[in-house]
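ok so i was messing around last nite and threw this chain in just to see what happens. nothing serious, just curious
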Amino acid sequence: MKPIKQPFGTWSSNFTPNLLSSTIGLGEPLWDPQGEHLIWVEQRNGAGRLLVSDRSGDCPKEFTLGQNVRAHVGYGGGNFCVNNECVVFVGNNGNLYRQTLHSGDAVALTPGFGQCAFPQISPNGRWVAYIYELNGENGIAVVSMDGKRWPQKLITGADFYMDPRWSSDGMSLAWICWNHPNMPWDGTLLQIASLEDAGAPYCLQENIRTLAGGDSISVIQPEFCPTSNSLSYISDENGWYNLYLYDLDTHTTKHLNQDAAEYGGPAWVLGMRWYGWMPDGQSLVAIRSEQGFASLQSIDRETGQQRPLSVEGLDYTQLNTISISSQGELAVLASRPDTPTRLITAKLQQPISSVRILQRSNIEQLPTKEYSQPTPIQWNNEHEQTIYGLFYQPQNPRYRSDGLPPLIIQIHGGPTSQTLPIWKADAQYFTSRGYAYLDLNYRGSSGYGRTYRDLLKGQWGVFDVDDAISGAQYLVEQKQVDGRRLVIKGGSSGGYTVLQAMVNHPKFFCAGICSYGICDLFNLAKDTHKFEAHYTDSLIGPLPAAQSIYFERSPIFFAERIQNPLILFQGDEDKIVPPNQAEAIVKALSQHKVPHEYHLFKGEGHGWRRSETIVAYYQAINNFLERYVVFGRN
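result:
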């Protein structure tokens, strides 16, 4: 069929809001110790459920009815663990519950106060170590598996903890900890302690040893080797997240791989896994990421020799949350730009075979020709620094347009995060309607080594804005987009960048799209949750010394400079960027008669979980862009 000639931004698309809202969130696949069952979390319309699949090939089964499986420590994650056909998970009210994989009711293990996360069952099956958060205090606690004993604090003293791991004999525990003002990608410690067991595990302070890390070294994901007295971990000591092995007998450290690529990333949530040990303990399988493109690598424990695992059926551009069974079977979440996230498994014994798709996050009904494929691009700014991004051309086989398309520049959150070559509903929604789309990895983004990640320190609200401007200018100069129709879009810290850009470059972007964005840095430092309470110390500077910078970079104080239309979205239960931030900027926009829309979504927090919210969100943006960008009615 001959394409219909129609203006960019008005194309009719099969990527409907209803299709996007039907996506299932897949997370944390984990094998049981016998390698017979795989368990994972699914987020459906804002509620978390646990599912289990076995080797019979039968349909996966949900087994946590009536429970919302979701941890609330920090940004969440670390929702469950499994041992001997028994699962311990974080359910209603942040409690820990025990339940079998097959039938029966969930049994509460902890009382109904505080928050729990990242449970880990001891090798003897008697105890559960977990992260707790109570009255502003974080630590590692332990509770009995029968739920008949009151939880006991095991490790305390640091501001934050993550990734507690039992040794194979259950007499040692390793963990990661850090203190304010650091974030976990700034500096953490890997520590270990021998445990005394007099009816219940307890730890003496003098037993604690620090094995790796520091104030300016980030260490993540410790794992005990299954067949030797050693502990592996990821560290960015050499400027990249690489793998290390600590020998607990000789107290020596081996750098397993020295590679200018990332084998880990910023620990925004608990339970992230970038590698896993093979059952024989002779090698581990790791996810290698180079400028966001992922591959599987096998790394030998003794020699550090590395080889790629190239398998038909594993040709994905993004892989995350790896789990390897006791029988050598891989489970991993996988995606590529034209394939929504899948949960897949593959047998890793030679020859590698039996790639199986256990679950799909979306119905995958659209053919590949409907998708816009991202092109990695890079350009130099005025200081000859290289900036990175993924560029999507408008793509819809049913339409064509004259001239150049409008551009949407997407600013990721964090700001210490990274945009990746995955199935991105947002990008496909807009490109299929005739917009070009630049997914920007501005200075400060992860995935390009620690030096690039640290460039934003002290420069938040400056470099991120500058890189959005230079990225748009680059694409205009390349005659890829229409320089009169540039839109900036982002959420959370990306929403802050949107507001900063609209304040400091009032004529450059013809419209802005801001979701739960920050307008007042003073209130952010005062009101946000504990995890990010001192994040601005490095991004802006510590208060009160840097108060003049906080003022200069808070869009709320310069809202009168904004001239072009803005649409703003906010969840009324957001604890990270509270609604008072959106309300303040909306009030200022109203006072200065700036064209704007404000949408407050009830029951939503820091991001959209409910299907009806997602539908309303995209419909509102589409109408806004048609009015102010496509047809230019200010």
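not much to say yet. The chain has two domains: 27-273, 366-630.
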